[in-house]
Structure formats: C-alpha cells, structure tokens
Amino acid sequence: MDGFAEISGDPSCDFQYYFNQQGQLRHRVSEEAFVFRYIKGDVKGNQQQLLALEQYVTKHIYTLLEEECHLNKIYIPVDASDRHLSAFFFMSPGALDQNGLVILIQDQGTIRAGQWSRRMIVQEDVEKGTQIPYIHKVLEDSCGIIVMNPNDNSVELQHNFVENEDVANQQRFLMSKSGSSTPEEHVRYVWDFFVSKCAATHIAVVTHGYGGLAFVDLLSHRSQEVQNKVYAVAFIDSFHNLWHQVLDKDSQEWLKKHCRKWVLSSKPLDRPISFLKVDCPQVSAGTESHDAAPWMCLRSIFRFFAKTMKAHTTIPFTRAAIITRSKSRNRLTQSRTASERPAAC
After folding, report:
1. Residues 169-193: pLDDT tens digits?
2. Exposed, middle or buried by CB within 10 Å (0-12, 13-18, 19+), for 344?
3. Which end of the chain is more exposed for a tag (fewer CB within 10 A), N or C?
C-alpha cells in the first residue's frame, strides 16, 4: 500500500496505573484505585486518558490470554499477508481436534478479546471483568476454547501525499479489516474457516449483549450447520431480537430447546422470568447490571451446559428391549464413557 502507513504511538506507555497481583488497577505510586481526571475544556487530553486506559487494559488482557491461559493468537483472514492490518482471535492449542468446544462472544464497543466489561475490570478486578474465569473452567474440563474478537474491525492509517512529513499533507483513514469489518462478519468468518471444520461434536456458546445478536445472525445464515454442531447457547442480557432477525421455524424451535437467556433482574439468580413472545427460556441473572452479569452467571451457565449435555447424550431407555449380556457390557462401557466426559462440553 504505497503512501499508506499505520498510525504509530502508544499512549499506554506513560500510563500511571498497573495491575497488582490481585488483578486490581492501582496507581503506580499511591496504590489508589483508578480515577479518571477530567480536565475541563481539554477534549484532546480527556480523549488521550481514555485511549491510554483502553490500550493498557487491552494489552494486559492479551498478555494474560497468551501467557496465563496459553491461548494462541490466530490471525484472519487465513491468507493475510500483513498481520498489522489483520484481525485476530484466540484459540487453545488443539481446540479444533477435541470432542468439546466452547466459544465466547463478547458485547460491542471498544472492548477486545478476553473482556466482558472494561468497567468491571477497572472498578473491580480482572477476575470479575474478563473472560478468564470462563477460559479456566473450560480448559479444566479438557475442552477446546475459542475467544472471538468481534470488535477488532478497522485500523487507522495515514497517507502522505508528498514525501516530507508535513502534517498538512497527511490524511487519516480507517480501513476495514478483511473478514472482520463488523462483529457479524467476524463471527461468520471464524465459524466458516475454523469451527465448521472442527472435529467437535459438542459445541457450547456463551454470548453477552451484542454477541447474542451476532450469534443469531450466524444462525440465520448457517442454520443447519449451527444446529448440527451446537448443543447449547447461553445468552447473557442479549441484544438479539427475532422481530428484526428473521429465523425459519426450525431455527426458532432449536432456540427454544437448546438456548437459555439470563436477563437483568433484581430477582435471585436463576429464578424463571416470564415475558410474552420469548424465543427461549429466561432466568434472572441475579443482578440489574449489564456489566456484572457475566461474572454473576458463570456457575449457572456451566450447570446449564452440563444439564443440556446430559440430555443431549442420554439414550432413551425402553422397557421392552431385550438386554443380552453383550448389550449389557456395551451399555456399561457407554455409561462409563459418559461419566468421564467433561461437564462443560
């Protein structure tokens, strides 16, 4: 791309805060919690503060995904020649070869892979605001995991119209990333080039906010593939809406049988919530905070996955069946295999 260059500079280099051993964001000198220093009339200065926070948190979580969770960064599109202009997501080693797979799809905005809520990360800690507890649970259950990065959609470039570096002769552009220009395109691309080709016969999905809308968009475009591979979906305060996202009858029935929605409510966690025209069973998230909901629902979601998996793999018992000794041994083997299968996948 002659004449174009990626915008350089990293405001997070001079960031005055750090994450302590408890995963809390603290001032490097005073050890006080993060405080946004609003400067009246200084729009650029305020924007720089926010950008520094955003970049520092993102870099820190990416580091944790690679060094603590041991996930691999996968660049897309698969034939990308320049990684600086490419989107990416994270995946555990050998994830596509395992029998069970869990996919995490976050909300919209400036948050990147591994984050549920930057507000929770900053005001609480990494444990409550990131996807890392989910990742640990999945890996403990010997499943593969894919951490999507649906908001990594563009890169800012500058174009020099003349050879010198005169600012007056520079223009900035936002260039969409191929295969990830929108959250919906990102989810479809990762599905088409990775998930659809994986060996997993048991796939579960966790979505938050706009991530639910992106998943339903995938279901509308890849109906049979999704229904054949995905056995359970957890929608956390999902933004999907079947009034605006058209699904065929089979897909609508599949949603009712395989999905559960955790909605914001003051009721205790997992209490049934009834509304007219619901597309799948709904329960309370145990909180009225959109940002806190993924943390609050974690254990409930994995119980739902385990229960759905059990129903998905159980062979109906027929009293009239004649059980021979060989069949009895086979059933015992199947029973042991089922009991050894990880609960989350």
Report:
1. 567 778 899 999 999 999 999 999 9
2. buried
3. N
- Tell which residue, 290, 321, 329, 333, has the closest CA to residue 111: 290
Choose among 230, 181, 216, 207: nearest CA to 76: 181
Over residues 15-69, the pLDDT tens digits come to 899 999 999 999 999 999 998 877 788 778 788 888 999 999 999 999 999 999 9
Whether the CB-CB separation of 232 and 300 falls below 8 Å is answered with: no
How far apart CA 157 and CA 326 sit, in angstroms, is: 68
Handedness of CA 141, 142, 143, 148 (dihedral sign): positive
Q: Note the pTM of the prediction, 2 decimals.
A: 0.86
Cα end-to-end span (Å), the chain: 44
Return phi, psi of residue 161, to 5°.
-80, -20
What angle is formed at CA 105 by the lines to CA 261 and CA 214, rounded to 5 degrees? 75
| Rounded Cα–Cα distance for residues 104 and 5 (Å) | 32
Contact 176, 73 (CB under 8 A): no
**Cα separation of 83 and 146, whole Å?**
19
Q: What are phi and psi of 304, to 5 degrees?
A: -60, -45
The two three-digit tokens of residue 196, written as one number:
């659809």
* Element spanning 19, H or E: strand 17-19
Instruction: Check if the beta carbon of residue 21 is closer than 8 Å to that of residue 127.
Output: no
DSSP, residue by residue, 165-179: --GGGEEEEEEEPTT
As a whole number of angstroms, the distance between CA 61 and CA 91 comes to 14
Name every residue whose Cβ is closer than 8 Å to that of residue 88 and which is 6 or more positions away in sequence: 73, 74, 75, 76, 113, 149, 152
Length, in residues, of the chain: 345
Question: Which residues is 129 bridged to in the sheet?
Answer: none
- Of residues 216 and 82, which shows the higher confidence score? 216
Mean pLDDT calculated for residue range 139-164? 84
Count other Cβ atoms within 10 Å, centred on residue 249.
7
